[in-house]
Structures are given as C-alpha cells and as structure tokens.
Amino acid sequence: IIVFGSFNFYLGKKEKKKILLSENYIQAKIYLENGNKTEAVNILKSVIFASDPAYSTLCLFLILNENLITDYKELLALFDHLLANNKFEKEIENLLVYKKALLNSNFANESELLEGVKPLLNTDTLWRPHALLLLGDYFVSKKEYLKAKQFYAQILTINNLQKELYEQARLQLSFIAND
Fold it and tell me: Each residue of 33-66: pLDDT tens digit?
C-alpha cells in the first residue's frame, strides 16, 4: 500500500508540474501578445530551467523565433542547459544540436563550428545533410571555396535525400565553379 501510494503521489506531482509548465508557457505567450517581452522572457527562461523536454524546448524555440534574447552567449547557455539536462529522442536532440550550430555559425571560428556539428556528421541522421549545407555555406562566406566544395559534394552522395537539398548543393557548387 505504501509503494502504491508513493507511486500515485509521484505521478500526481509530475502531472501538476506539467500543468504548471504549460500554464507558464501560455502566460508567456500572452505577455508577448501584450508587448511585455521582459516578463515573457523571465517566464520562458524559468520553464527552460525546469528541464522538461517538451516545454523547455518549446520555450527556447519561442525565444529564438521571436528574437527575444539577442545575447549570443546567453542563447548558447540555454542550448547547453537544454541538451545537458533533458533526455530527448535522438532526432530531437540532433535538431537542437543543428539549431545551436546554426546560431553558432554567425560567431564561432571554424574549429568551434566543426566541433559543434560533429555529432551530426558522424551519424546517419536526417540533420546530417543540413549540417553539411551549413558548413558549405559557412566556408563560402569565408571565401574558402575548396572546403565548401567538399561539404557540398558530400551532400550529393547521400541516398534518398530531399530534392531541395540536392539542388541547393548543386547550385552552390556551380556558384563556386563560376566564381
């Protein structure tokens, strides 16, 4: 009876936490609609630090989509917290790694960016071609066309890929050839 009661108490507490997080997420969206960004950001960050895989991720994506935090280091810290303190399905985790690398591509040096996308490049994930495209674009922006060409060429070797990604890689390779 004690084990059964403890288990029910645990499940009830966990459910209440989920409800509270969902209410906080909705409240933050209401604050955003009313123009109170500061209060919205405070709530969204508190939900992220509650370390719930679903609501923490939703809150981080809302912060990114609405450009609520512009401090690059603070955003990276939020990504790091999310990745370190939650258990995700592999593809969701890979999406977060990709989005972090995408953010990082504007500020990081080559070795930091390559280290950040390494988990995507070394696995068979649907985010691998996106990471290759990101790296190719990064090197084009740095006018390092030989490195860019290597990443674009890898995209063309992937089987059963979306046609759009093949086309983007081909366009970039033709751009490099004409430049």
Answer: 999 999 999 999 999 999 999 999 999 999 999 9
Question: For residues 24 and 96, what is the distance between their CA atoms, to the nearest angstrom?
Answer: 22
Buried b vs exposed e over 114-127: b needs ≥16 C-beta within 10 Å?
eebbebbeeeebeb
Burial 136-163 (b: 16+ CB within 10 A, else e): bbbbbeeeebeebbebbebbeeeeeeee
CA distances from 47 to 44, 65, 98, 103 (A): 5, 16, 22, 21
* Cβ neighbours, 10 Å, residue 86: 17
Return the CA Rg of the chain.
20
3-state secondary structure at position 113? helix
- b/e per residue 2-40 (b: at least 16 CB within 10 A): eeeeeeeeeeeeeeeeeeebeebbeebbebbeeeebeeb
What is the model's pTM? 0.85
Nearest to 116 by CA among 148, 141, 89, 138: 138
Q: Which two tokens stand for residue 32?
A: 């955003």
Mean pLDDT, to the nearest integer, of 141-165? 93
Q: Distance (Å, rounded) from C-alpha 69 to C-alpha 92?
A: 22
Q: Which two tokens stand for residue 129?
A: 């071609």
Calpha distance 164→148 (Å, rounded): 18
